[in-house]
Amino acid sequence: MTAPVLELDGVHTHIGAYHILHGVDLVVPAGQVTMLLGRNGAGKTTTLRTIMGLWAASAGALRFKGRAIGGKGAQLPTPEIAQLGIAYVPESMGIFTDLTVQENMVLAARSARRAAELDTQRLEWIFGLFPALQKFWLYPAGKLSGGQKQMLAVARAIVEPRELLLIDEPSKGLAPSIIRNLIDAFGQLKRQDTTILLVEQNFQMARALGDRVAVMDDGRVVHAGAMAELADDEALQQRLLGLSLGAHQ
Ligand SMILES: Nc1ncnc2c1ncn2[C@@H]1O[C@H](COP(=O)(O)OP(=O)(O)O)[C@@H](O)[C@H]1O
Ligand SMILES: [Mg+2]
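Above: query sequence and adenosine-5'-diphosphate SMILES. Below: predicted holo structure tokens.
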């Protein structure tokens, strides 16, 4: 296993009066895709939001490349966490539907205030991953299909080099053929050594992309290991996820 980019040690998160995360331990190695699985309400989204500092951890430690970014007495504000190199694609995608695809990309870039200032080489690379974005470059993002909007949300997160991508349920509500396109695009990102922490219910995507897997239940990580090991063990899938993943392809 390569050196971890991100480590969570015993992370607790409270939302108001509710105690949601109960000691999350998680290691995300560099250059790999780590899948975060688990039932609805297990705490996956809360974990991503805690990593970004959108919720403050009430106990435990969060480290990015060895540096404390959260935990008691060590909480960095969200913009600083983003600045360090972590990009977050929330479930809601966070795109501006009234603005063009181009404007959405410019707004996501720290180093560009106008389209002409976007890094053209990087843009070509992004268009290679998501050809629809080039095609609809000057269209309002609201005109894109659900899958294309998801691609725009991911493209915004990679408009500039980032060391770690956090992506929350990108396939939710998408047709199988669109999911296959997303798997292809994420597969290309992965081959370029992008480190990704991906929350995903779709097991086809989880199995196709995941190197490592962490399964959450009730605010804790209850299993961590190689994705291949979980993919090959239906009894383990049943126990951890309460479903036969082989039947959900
Ligand atoms: N803003 C909130 N206020 C109160 N409870 C919340 C809030 N967000 C999430 N929760 C609760 O925290 C638990 C974990 O939610 P979440 O992290 O969204 O789970 P998942 O992403 O795994 O489905 C759930 O019981 C959910 O109801
Ligand atoms: Mg969620």
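The CA atoms of residues 169 and 200 lie 5 Å apart.
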